[in-house]
Amino acid sequence: MTHGTDTGISTGTGISPDADTGLPAQRTAATPRQDLARFAVTSHTLRALASTEPSEEGTRLVRDVRRSKRLLLLRAVLDAAPGAETAEHWALLEEAERQDPAAVHDVLHYPATGVWAEETLRRLHAPQGPPPDLGHLGALAAAAALRAGIGFKTTLRPVNGRLVLPTLGLLRPQGPGRLALTERSWGDTADVLPLHALPGAATTSLDDLDPYRVPPPGTATGPAAVRPARRLTPKGHKRWDIQWSGAHTLLGRYDSARAEEIGLLLRSVVPLAGGSRSSGATLPAAAGSVLARAQAPPALAATLVHEVQHGKLAALADVLTLHTADRTPRHWAPWRADPRPLEGLLHGTYAHLALAGYWQHAALYGARGAWAQHARIRAQVAAVLPALRAHPALTVTGREFVDGMATAERAMDATPPPGDQHAAARRTLERERRAWCEAHPELAPFVRV
Fold first, then answer.
1. Which DSSP letter does residue 369 get?
2. Biased-composition ranges for Low complexity (predicted)?
3. Among 20, 178, 189, 198, whose Cα sits 20 to 30 Å from the Cα of 320?
4. Domain limits of the chain?
5. pTM
């Protein structure tokens, strides 16, 4: 069985999900839109993703969807923002791509670029609001040109006394006004602050610089109460290096497949501000990025496993309709006190299923306390799966996906925790469920036992 999409994602220029092609060309009014590529998701790939276990086909689908969606967003920005300046910036991107396609690909597919593209498109279609930041396209072009090593000259306007070049870092101009950039503008000088590369990671950066690492204030595209940290001090970077290295070591030791998956799907980590209620968050607009609080390596490793799952499910939901439910919060989620809509329950269950698997791997390796973590989280997942599987708003595809999750949860019986830890976790969870239903009597009918 193959699951198609209702709306297909493509660049609008005939670029298929399997083609590693470059920039979308500017569209003319006469260009037909029938060339939208349609992703085909086989049942094998759907079930591989449903299990949360890393797989080559699942990772490839997630990356293809992200790439195609990003190019489509850029295509839409170009269509909505004609003009000489936009054309000049795009021409520089095209010139850089001819020299080094990989460099341009990395700049345009950097997570923060997606936030900028979505916010710019929103502002272009809302003329009464704040003006779009089209100058940022010039920063993207300059970053691509610098990384491609081509000769160029362009002029950009710094914001608040600094000019951020995505994937590179920021320039601090000597004076106010517009800044002329050439291929010699980026170097080892006091006016350059490079983006911080995390140790041992081939491509993952710690991003405390990009203005679009999260949506601008006043937008409703991200989780509530999620605030990025301000620019870190060298001491803050060192602390993150230590915690990241420890987490990376634990992931490689306990679950090398998940460690590899994180390396393939995670491009940037955005530090959360102190006092953040959440240990981590994922923004669909910033595909390939995770917001995380500074925390001890075991907790950071679990946060990375958890948040990467949200990114995988978001990519799948971009091409498949899993349910038709609204956003009404009415479902019990054991990991939260507040009721959740079906979308939130599905995401939470999926991420916690991965965590249960990760802690099981860690426990089998001998990690202290891992069996207790596994038993607690698996009991939570098992408790809400019946409500998910029976939900009338699931599509046929959504039901197959949730059935795949249930199969993965049952497979954990092959290596249960010692003693009665799983039974004890279920008893504790049942008490919590009863207490929640008493606190929300109007929602008790939505809690399946």
1. T
2. 1-16
3. 20
4. 197-216+229-296, 321-449
5. 0.91
